Amino acid sequence: MKLNRLLIGSTLVAALGGFLFGFDTAVISGTTEALKQVFQLTSNQLGFTVASALIGTILGSIVVGKSAERMGRKRTLLVLAVLFFVSAVGCGFAWDWISLILFRFIGGLAIGGASVVSPMYIAEIAPPQSRGRLVSVSQFNTVFGILAAYFTNYVIASMFSAQGPAGVSVAWRWMFGVEAAPAALFFLLVLQIPESPRWLVKQRQREEALEILRRLGSGDPRLVLNEIIESLREETVSTSEPFFVKKYRKPILLALMVATFNQLSGINAVIYYTADIFRMAGAERASALFQSVLIGVTCLVSTVMAMMVIDRFGRKRLLLIGAAGMTVCLAVTAFAFYKGVGGELVLVSLMGYIAFFAFSQGSVIWVFLSEIFPNRVRARGQALGSFTHWAWCAIVSWSFPVIAERSGGHAFSFFALMMVFQLVMVSNFLPETKGVSLEQIQRKLGIE
Asked: How far apart are the first and last CA of the chain?
């Protein structure tokens, strides 16, 4: 199916929120050693420093649902761009540990919001046949943002390495601060995209929604509009309908399951502490940062592969492949730490782990969460999934440096066990949603 220019352009702009989400998530991995030295942090304090952004992320993922419903998807994206900019500049000029935590918290608010609104916006403008690929553009940009953070961390560290300790005390500020440029660009580009036609229908702005559907090339625009109107049941169902009710039980449980296992795989512990993990395995600082770049490249390549097949293979099959592959790779990583085998085996096993994650869970989670909830509660449903994802992320990321200080093998053994559980749960309970319209999915789940 040929996609028109406005649809592609709007998708790419919204997906810049994913880029900032990924960059802000990963950039701290290159600063942890410097932060421990500059602010004299213990392992527990370092864990809290990382988790401070995640606390903001949890809150952001909760409140953004209401914001997206009241303000619209477009204006919410503009607010998130401002928050990303303020966080980047604030962290770059942080004058003490408390101010750093405050600005990381603000960045977390933006991350949580972007994780909900960017894929939701894309899902609402995309035709069913290509929705998986288009929503995956947001995940691609998230992974690209992670790689960009790893790469800029490596470049900045290399530039300041000749200055010794003085360079270390300055480099981390630049690592945080460079994010201000893409945040400003994101704000300017969002001004050019249309509002979500599904949100406009909910606001009873049907003519404007119809015009946008025409411009997006959404098949027969009147047919699509009527299907949206029917799914919302504007005459009998309030857009403020209760969410935690029996008829939404199945999509709620599915969202909780997918979001929980996404983080119990240990992915964000690996992303936040990549350089530290390689240093624990025996690598020098420069080598650890370079190996982080290799992890980012692996993640990016695997995400591209997933984008190419997600609408053909389906969501469920990708999750099953990923869970099996990650179980093996995490078990090998745990073995390497228990036996003290060395950094090479850890690098190879983590590259395999990242490849399987990006090919499966990394590409599926935001697509799946944007699909399984009906139009009238999609923002709240996606916010619930995102909140669950980030709550587990905060728990895992805060506890990881404390546990890993005792034994890296224990942490990776736990993650491997969780992937075994995921394999069983997905195999037995997850429905397939590929190639089905958002309105048909709700009927498939028994929601009238």
From this structure: 30
- Buried-exposed string 172-198: b where 16+ CB fall within 10 A, e elsewhere: bbbbbbbbbebbeebbebbeebbbbbb
Cα–Cα distance list, 329 to 64, 166, 399 (Å) = 35, 38, 21
Residue from 333, 343, 335 nearest 280 by CA: 343
Distances (CA, A) of 337 to 153, 289, 292: 26, 19, 18
Q: What tens digit of pLDDT does each residue of 233-275 get?
A: 643 444 567 888 888 888 999 999 999 999 999 988 888 787 7
- List the structure tokens of 439: 């309105």
Q: Cα 184 to chain center, whole Å? A: 20
For residue 325, give every residue at least 6 positions away whose Cβ sits within 8 Å of its Cβ, in sequence order, or none.
352, 353, 355, 356, 359, 360
Q: Residue 324 above 60 pLDDT?
A: yes
User: In the chain, what are the domain boundaries?
Assistant: 7-444
CATH superfamily, domain at 7-444: MFS general substrate transporter like domains (1.20.1250.20)
For 331-371, give the DSSP string.
HHHHHHHHHT--HHHHHHHHHHHHHHHHHTHHHHHHHHHHH
Q: What is the pLDDT of residues 349-405, one digit of tens each?
A: 988 998 999 888 887 887 788 788 887 777 788 778 878 888 898 888 888 887 877
Of the candidates 307, 315, 284, the one whose C-alpha atom is nearest the C-alpha of residue 432 is 315
- The Cα–Cα gap between 27 and 271 comes to 9
Q: Are 267 and 362 in contact (CB under 8 A)?
A: yes
Among 104, 79, 111, smallest CA distance to 187 is for: 79
Give me the pLDDT at residue 80, please: 95
pLDDT tens, residue by residue, 287-299: 777 887 888 888 8
- Residue for token digits 């961390």? 153
Q: How many CB atoms lie within 10 A of CB 285?
A: 15
